[in-house]
Amino acid sequence: MGAMSARPNTEAAAQQAENTAPHRAGFACFVGRPNAGKSTLTNALVGQKVAITSNRPQTTRHTVRGIVHRDDAQLILVDTPGLHKPRTLLGERLNDVVRTTWAEVDVIGFCLPADQKLGPGDKFIVKELAGIKKTPKIAIITKTDLVESKALAEQLLAVSALADELGFEWAEIIPVSAVEAEQKAGRTASDKGGDGRGAGQVELLADLIAPLLPESPPLYPEGDLTDEPEMVMVAELIREAALEGVRDELPHSIAVVVEEMLPREDRPADKPLLDIHANVYIERPSQKGIIIGPKGKRLKDVGTKSRKHIEALLGTPVFLDLHVKVAKDWQRDPKQLRKLGF
Question: Is 0.70 topped by the overall pTM?
């Protein structure tokens, strides 16, 4: 009698094991050359726009965290700037941010675009990763929607061979297309046709990272998507809008500082308005005209575009007051860098 009761039926046991599986929580970061698809991947995993995405390399300057809430795990994504050979003081500080982040996370994802051959920049990063012994490393082949399967297979082999050469092993190697994931997010599971890459792969990436995290209760409240202060996120949204359509020499020359965000006084409770005053800084007076545009049209477009995103982020109507200012050679000046938040 006693012997019988000691053996619960296997289905119930499996159910029980599932219920007692430890919850995991921790930090993961994506690294890779500038423009390797790191921010887009963060946004796809979180399912909402948290990191700024731009088709210009080197646009992420702050460690933007996206938070992925799952039943079994909470994954906090730390989005670092792209590691690169620095040419300015700002560049050196960005590289320091990357290395500090690597030392503090639980999992590192190395992003490599499917449509570009493994270059010296990638090898430089993977060599640095090889020196970080204890942290599990995942190789993520991004932008798979841009290549045929043969080219993708070659890239997977190349990234595997590089780890062998440097004497370590990837915990996982996975191809993803964050773009396809965004497009497919609205469909049901049954009609995710195509080649099986894309949306499912971004989900699979989360599935692969979760078990590599330490056992821990959730570190952030349910519903939080990022721990970036709102003013920083607002500044990033303005900078993203300001970068669009600007000529090639400008991307690194733009910094945005939100001076204040104040609720407009004398407004009825059901019609609030938030006043946001922000300065767009550039390095040289000659760049002012590029940002402002003929008869102020460009700056107006930047305001309109960023205001929509800011209102969606904050959930309140916004009055945005933008001014363009010159901070001479701010990327090379420690005092200016501090003032602009670097």
Answer: no
